[in-house]
Design goal:
283 residues; alpha/beta; 434 Repressor (Amino-terminal Domain); Endonuclease, Chain A; 2 domains; seven-stranded mixed sheet; 7 strands
Length: 283
C-alpha cells in the first residue's frame, strides 16, 4: 500500500475520532459508538487508526451516530479522493467483474494511445471471448465473488471496438509466459494465439513480445496500462492502483520503454507465437 494512501487513511481516521469525541450531546467512547452501530468494538479502532477503510454507508451511520450529519458530504469527498487511487478487489468485485470492465471502458474511450505491459496473461484488448471467459471465472472462483463472466465478456468486447476507430493506437508488450500460461484449456489458448498472430501488422496495434531468451534490463513484474500519459492502472492481488500524478506516470512510461527494448516485432513476434502454438500439441 502506498505511503501517501496510508497517510491519507490515517488522517481520515483522526477525523472520525474527532467526530466521536465532539458529539454535541457529549463525547462517545469507542465502546459506546460500537454499541450504537452494532459493530465489533475493534472495528471502531481499526477505522480510527487507519487500519481499515470505512465504507460510505458506514460513514453515513458514523456521522449520524455522532450527531453531526452535516459533516458527511465533506468527508465523503475526502474518502472518494483517496479511495479512487487504490481500488480494492474486495469492493470492486462485490457486484462482479462487469462493473470493473465498465470503469475501464470509460477510460479507454477517453484515450487515443494505450500502452500496455502484461507478463502472465494476454492483454485484455486482444483477448478472445473464450479466453476472457476462463480468466474471469478463475478470478471469481479465487476471490469468491459474483460469477458474471458472460456480462464481463460482453463489456470487454465493447472495449475492443476502440481498436477499429480512427486515430487509436494500442502499443502492447507481453512476456512469452503470457502466450504459454494455461489459464484456459489448450484449445482455447490455441485460438487465442491465432488471434494474436492476426493482429501483428494491424495498423492500430503494435504488438511486441519478449522471448524467454531475451536479455532483460528489468525483471518482469505486474502488468500495467498507461492511458494517453495521463493515467496509469496497475494491479496487485489486493487492489488495482489508479495513478494520475506526473511522477508515477513518468516512472511507468520509463518501465514500459525499457521493457520494450527487449521485445521482438513483426515476423520475429510471429515466430514466438507459432512456437507457443506448437508446444500445445505436446500438452
Amino acid at each position: 500500500m502506498s505511503t501517501d494512501y496510508q497517510q491519507a487513511r490515517e488522517a481520515f481516521g483522526i477525523s472520525l475520532r474527532e467526530l466521536r469525541l465532539r458529539c454535541p450531546s457529549g463525547k462517545l467512547t469507542g465502546t459506546q459508538l460500537a454499541s450504537a452501530l452494532s459493530w465489533p468494538h475493534s472495528k471502531i479502532y481499526k477505522c480510527e487508526g487507519g487500519k481499515q477503510t470505512i465504507t460510505e454507508d458506514d460513514l453515513r451511520r458514523w456521522v449520524d451516530a455522532c450527531e453531526q450529519p452535516d459533516k458527511f458530504d465533506g468527508m465523503q469527498a475526502r474518502l472518494r479522493g483517496f479511495e479512487s487511487q487504490i481500488r480494492s478487489w474486495r469492493r470492486q468485485l462485490s457486484s462482479g467483474h462487469s462493473a470493473v470492465q465498465d470503469s475501464w471502458n470509460v477510460e479507454v474511450q477517453r484515450s487515443r494511445v494505450l500502452y500496455a505491459w502484461e507478463e502472465s496473461v494476454v492483454a485484455g484488448m486482444l483477448q478472445t471471448a473464450d479466453y476472457a471467459r476462463h480468466v474471469f471465472r478463475r478470478y471469481a472462483t479465487f476471490f469468491g465473488t459474483t460469477q458474471d463472466a458472460e456480462e464481463a465478456v460482453r463489456a470487454r468486447a465493447r472495449r475492443q471496438e476502440w481498436l477499429y476507430e480512427s486515430g487509436h493506437t494500442l502499443r502492447v508488450v507481453m512476456w512469452e509466459a503470457a502466450l504459454r500460461a494455461l489459464v484456459c484449456p489448450p484449445s482455447v489458448l490455441d485460438a487465442q494465439l491465432d488471434r494474436l498472430a492476426s493482429v501483428v501488422g494491424m495498423d492500430s496495434v503494435e504488438l511486441g513480445i519478449i522471448p524467454f531468451t531475451a536479455s532483460l534490463k528489468l525483471p518482469t513484474a505486474n502488468g500495467f496500462w498507461v492511458f494517453d500519459e495521463r493515467l496509469v492502472v496497475t494491479e496487485d492481488w489486493h487492489a488495482e492502483l489508479w495513478l494520475d500524478d506526473a511522477d508515477n506516470i513518468a516512472l511507468y512510461g520509463r518501465v514500459w520503454s525499457t521493457l520494450r527494448e527487449s521485445a521482438v516485432y513483426g515476423p520475429d513476434a510471429h515466430n514466438v507465437i507459432n512456437a507457443a502454438r506448437r508446444s500445445l500439441s505436446s500438452r
